[in-house]
Specification:
Blueprint (H helix, E strand, L loop, with lengths): L24 E16 L4 E6 L12 E5 L5 E17 L1 H16 L1
Antiparallel strand pairs: 1-4, 2-4, 3-4
Length: 107
């Protein structure tokens, strides 16, 4: 997928996680790049970066900017030089989803 292609839920190459949480996705940019914006289709996200895929930064503060035309949520992050970006749904969002699911099951 190129940087300009929109996310496609019907893409046969799309990875969808199983029921265990949290799910981490690691993106290899192929080379080191300065990154200052990222986009996701999840509301609360936690992000960390790495130059080598072994040594990771602390979690990076993501500031919500707004929705892109394709529905992806865009976030600003402090500019960082990295090759790898790892992201997951933030724990508070996961807990909220699990509690909502539990409430529906108990009805």
């Amino acid at each position: 997928m190129t940087p300009n292609e929109p996310h496609n839920d019907e893409d046969p190459h799309l990875w969808l996680p199983g029921p265990a949480v949290p799910h981490w996705v690691t993106v290899d940019l192929g080379d080191q790049h300065e990154v200052n914006r990222i986009g996701f289709r999840i509301k609360d996200v936690q992000v960390r970066t790495s130059l080598d895929g072994e040594h990771w930064s602390d979690y990076i503060l993501c500031t919500y900017i707004g929705l892109r035309p394709d529905g992806t949520r865009e976030y600003a992050i402090p500019a960082v030089l990295c090759r790898f970006i790892e992201f997951s749904e933030a724990p508070k969002s996961l807990m909220r989803r699990l509690l909502d699911r539990l409430a529906r099951l108990l009805k």
